Request: fold
Amino acid sequence: MEFLNWVRGPGLEYATVIFLVGILMRFLEMWLIGRKPDLSRPRASASRAGWRAVWRRSLPSEGLMKNSPLVMIAGYVFHIGFLLVLLFYVPHIHFFKDVLGFGWSGLPTPVINFLSILTIAALVALLIHRLIDPVRRFLSTSQDYIVWAVTTLPVVTGYMAMHMDVMPYTTMLALHILSVEILMVVFPFTKLMHAFTFAVSRYYNGAAMGRKGVQL
Amino acid sequence: MGGLSDIPVVTAADDVASDTAITPAVQALLMELADRLEVFRQTGETHVIDLRSLPMPVAEHELLREWLGVGEVRIELDSLGPTAIHETAYPGIWWVVHRNRDGEVMTQQVEVTACPEIIRSQQEDIHEGLQRLREALPTGESA
Amino acid sequence: MTRPTLAQQLARQGISRRAFLKFCAATASMMALPPTMAPAIAEALGKRTRPSIIWLSFQECTGCTESLTRSHSPTVENLIFDLISLDYHHTLQAAAGEAAELAREQAMEEGGYLVLVDGSIPVADGGVYSTIAGMTNLDMLAHTVKDAAAVVAIGTCAAFGGIPKADPNPTGAKSVAALMADGSIASKPLINVSGCPPIPVVITGVLAHYLTFGTVPELDDLGRPRAYFGDSIHDRCYRRPFYDAGKFAKTFDDEGARKGWCLYELGCKGPTTHNACATAKWNMGTSFPIESGHGCIGCSEPDFWDAGSFYKPLSAATGDLSGLAGGAIAAGAVAGAAAGLYARSQKHKAAASREKMTVDDLKD
Reply:
């Protein structure tokens, strides 16, 4: 109980501050480095190509589907599953409502239950693939494994906490919140930042190409 | 501001009473009693259910009592306060309510047995009673 | 002086065996034991002598004593006159002043007594925040516990510190367990009967268990008897099916509240609280808070006063995160600007120090 009180109170406050300060710091840093103004005459609309790139690159590419369908499917499943569970599980909405001042309607618990299992399965499949495939294994750094762990733990602990009759709820809830706090602290300083920067970088690339008249 | 009577109040007990449909807890208890009665019939093993140990609203105790009904035997004990015992409509299932001297319910039990143990005269009490009886007997001298 | 056994004593009072069996049936129910245990209880209880009990009240509100005196089945009168010898309890006893302290000293002479504590013990500034008969609470507790057979911490204050220990804990309040752990008082078998107040029947049930079997009941990791604190309120709540079905009351007077749906979203702490409310109930078995439409506030858990609002759901933060976010964003802006400007100056420096390649370089 003392532990639960700490993670719901001071722990969450530290994590929130580090999370927000970290993200803002990273963004401002990137923005302030700046780019030289491009003085050339644009051949096509840069912004149109930029937005197009943001959208197009969210869709599965044909080549990837053919070469490694597992990475493709598991990748989509876990990203979508993770977001749905995060944003539409009713107790989560209550958390956001308390912080933001407004809420939204959630998904029924059995659906969240199913999505959680799907998300965990996809994450495990991706890890196994990363370990077995020699090329991926060679390319992986320790950060890849850390990022996998801090992403997976909140889903696993959350799933265990939901099943109150099996696990002591007080402990599981505390571990779940702690795992989320670890994720929040690690987030701004690892590749997890892609959750925010993916759109910016895609737009940047798309806009730069579009300006030069490249058909994307 | 209106009076208290303006506030609509619905109590759980009213709900249950008006709704004679069985609740899951009562259904489970009736099934347990049926199983236990079968065991008692075949092996003679008795069983007691302590209603206080079960997580159910008091209104459901009443519902269970209504379901079991009243049979042929009613017994009143006066022992450290009143105890009311009746055989339910199903012979072999007894409803036992122990009260203290202030009339507050101490325990409420459903027993599966031919006769609740507490009704029988206890050896210690028989022994003590016999002594009293002998003392009370008029002796030849005083007669 | 040898004390008579309970059976002898009851016989002397003209209480029949049947009445005693009835009492034992009630006792079994109170101890959360199966009713079939009643004969075994009668057997054990009949052979016991009445143990001496010393009740110490420290930083408390008397709510625990109020709760005990409202116990029924058996009543506290049963307990005091028939089962135990309550030799010292400053709220209930007739003696006062030096006579009261003398009663405590006398009860202690025989040793092997049970000590009941309610209230937390202040240790800051030499313990001056609570004293009785010129003794600090800590001194009195240490002195009394020294020769005790066992200690029962009655209520959340004695068991975990309770409201006196709530942040910022100005009196340095500590629980009995904490004092045993840091060696301020002797370590004895300890039973924590938490709750604010504890359920009357749980207090008497724990005492009855000790009296009947002479042992400390099986305890959980917080030192509480498993028979009463083994399940969470949520596990045994009659509204649990609504939780599982996802039916929640959104306000205290909406349709869901009237239909008796789950109170999780209104801040019920049932899932993290362990107590016997759902079965033992309150007010002579009438109901428990959730049955009256209010969520559990978690009063039998450590530090429940510091667990945030009683009306915020368990999944929400206990503090004010949105207030904090504003500050964090401002801090992030400053830190980001500094980091950005530093990176920018590094970039310019690198650009300025870059050497231009000339035709001569290619010739080499």
About this structure: The mean pLDDT of chain C is 85. Residues 231-337 of chain C form a domain with the Cytochrome-c3 Hydrogenase; Chain A, domain 2 fold (CATH 4.10.480.10). DSSP finds 17 helices and nine strands in chain C.
